[in-house]
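> call design_seq(struct)
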């Protein structure tokens, strides 16, 4: 086993069961992502992108094959260990933001702390730091409901950063944003990547796949293309 791989999957097979019928959606997916990579996953709707991302992130444990993330074999983790893994190692960003609208930005960002059981003073400080990282420290006390879409996605990113994960998994993060706002969010992902974060982004946006170091294409549950643009060098923007 290579030790510098952030993600390693071997022969991953996944099917969804309905009664006695299993519909396969991932076939023999083998993938290795090194720490510090910026990887885009593309493919038509229904090709298995979200399913694969959820398996890598430990949200879905119902598959066969091997999945190792940050040196941990996920199939060896029990429910509690898997939820600790998700909380400590991985940040998730979704298209629909998934904020609690009736809570403030700061409260939304601090939600992971509830699971991590950290002391209150540290929680406020870290939530503020995370909001500062996305340029929204001044909105800490504002209700999430009162933010624009781009601001909501920034708060969701701050929440994902709260536990200082090594890996960010993003599922169509700009899908609900206008193109200017989407570009700003992608710029932020590049900054995080330059600071050492590994990013895997499922996207339909050409501007993400052209700035990613590597583009993986899924079709009908199989990887049909895996193109490395330039070996983890700095990306040119604009
Ligand atoms: P993508 O993200 O590329 O659009 P998904 O991973 O969401 O694709 O879905 C892959 C396939 O699995 C699709 O055919 C979809 O209908 C099916 N699928 C996804 N989630 C479920 C589920 N919870 N139950 C049954 N089938 C599902
Ligand atoms: Mg999807």
């Amino acid at each position: 086993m290579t030790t510098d791989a952030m993600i390693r999957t071997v022969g991953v097979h996944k099917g969804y069961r309905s009664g006695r019928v299993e519909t396969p959606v991932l076939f023999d997916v083998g993938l290795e992502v090194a720490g510090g990579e910026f990887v885009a996953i593309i493919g038509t709707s229904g090709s298995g992108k979200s399913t694969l991302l959820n398996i890598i992130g430990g949200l879905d444990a119902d598959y066969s094959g091997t999945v190792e993330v940050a040196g941990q074999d996920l199939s060896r983790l029990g429910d509690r260990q898997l939820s600790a893994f998700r909380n400590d190692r991985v940040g998730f960003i979704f298209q629909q933001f998934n904020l609690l609208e009736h809570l403030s930005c700061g409260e939304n960002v601090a939600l992971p702390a509830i699971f991590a059981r950290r002391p209150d003073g540290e929680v406020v400080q870290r939530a503020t730091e995370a909001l500062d990282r996305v340029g929204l420290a001044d909105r800490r006390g504002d209700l999430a409901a009162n933010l624009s879409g781009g601001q909501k996605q920034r708060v969701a990113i701050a929440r994902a950063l709260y536990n200082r994960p090594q890996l960010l998994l993003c599922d169509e993060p700009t899908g609900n944003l206008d193109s200017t706002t989407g570009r700003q969010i992608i710029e932020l992902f590049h900054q995080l990547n330059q600071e050492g974060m590994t990013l895997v982004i499922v996207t339909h946006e050409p501007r993400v796949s052209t700035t990613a170091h590597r583009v993986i294409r899924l079709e009908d549950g199989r990887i049909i293309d895996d193109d490395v643009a330039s070996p983890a060098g700095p990306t040119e923007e604009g």
